[in-house]
Amino acid sequence: MAPSGMQRWNPFRKRPKDTTSGCSKEPLEATPLGLKVVVEGDDPVVDIIAVHGLNGHRDKTWTAANNVHWLRDLLSSDIPNARIFCWGYDANTHGGRMSCQYLYSHATTLVSELCSERSLTDTI
Questions:
Q1: Are 41 and 83 in contact (CB under 8 A)?
Q2: pLDDT tens digits for 50-87?
Q3: Cα–Cα distance measured from residue 71 to residue 69, given in angstroms and rounded to the nearest whole number
Q4: Is the dihedral of CA 63, 68, 72, 76 positive or negative?
Q5: Which of the residues 8, 15, 28, 45 has an alpha carbon 20 to 30 A from that of 75?
Q6: Whole-model pTM?
Q7: Domain of life of the organism in this record (predicted)?
Q8: 73 vs 35, 39, 86, CA distance in Å?
């Protein structure tokens, strides 16, 4: 029996997921999938959509150790009339789960979400 206040080790016990990035105190979404507006832009004339690579993360991919978000803090000042998005998809290639979607399916999902966003805002 484990001493009072200590849990007995169980290899099948689910471990709590880390919900914070290594550089930010803000909690990250449990499943960072889909389209996210990073910057609305000043009277936007173009959309920029950043897509992470394999094993990437919709938010962490664009954030440096000093908590500078490249899309929000740097790119937006260089292109103020751009609406900037980041898009997350299941790109896990290792571990207990792998993406079951094909590349075409990911692309279809991205285009569908972008069309929906554009129809809601009627810009660009």
A1: yes
A2: 998 887 888 999 999 999 999 999 999 999 999 999 99
A3: 6
A4: negative
A5: 28
A6: 0.66
A7: Eukaryota
A8: 18, 9, 14
